[in-house]
Amino acid sequence: MNPWGTERVRVRRLSDNAVVRTTGAAEFTLDTTANTGYVVERTAKPLSGYGHTALTGTANQGVKPLGTHAALGIGTAPNAAAAARPTARQRGPTGPAPPRATPSSSPAPAWTGGTPART
User: Fold this and answer.
1) Where is this region: Disordered (predicted)?
2) Fewest CB atoms less than 10 Å from the CB: which of 7, 29, 56, 96?
């Protein structure tokens, strides 16, 4: 699938920068080799025309509060008890919000909790 519609693209093999395919088709096929990387780039704006910046930093080691009821990271929200109470918007005009769908009651995939995998 051409990410740019019918704009001309080329596919390069990363190991030696060889161009293995050039096309303007919306869909195209490509013979690949196992354990080999490829890049699809627009011929009008190849990746070599973009700048790059090295990023540095340290891994996050704590929870980052977002206001008083939410946080990013693994841990507890700053005000977990308040966060657990439904708001007026969640309760609606006549009472508590309906139960959330679970994997057994909904065909849509759902996150069931736990610790996210780290890479």
Assistant:
1) 77-119
2) 56
On whether the CB atoms of residues 57 and 48 are closer than 8 A, the answer is no
Tell whether the model's pLDDT for residue 77 goes beyond 90: no
- Write the DSSP assignment of 13-58 as a string of letters: ETTT--EEEEE--SS------TT--EEEEESSS-GGGS--------
What's the CA gap between 65 and 77, in Å, rounded?
7
Q: 107 by DSSP, 3-state: which?
A: coil
Distance CA 63, CA 89 (A): 26
Taking the C-alpha atoms of residue 40 and residue 2, their distance in angstroms, rounded to an integer, is: 8
Find the length of the chain. 119
Tokens representing 76 are: 């507890």
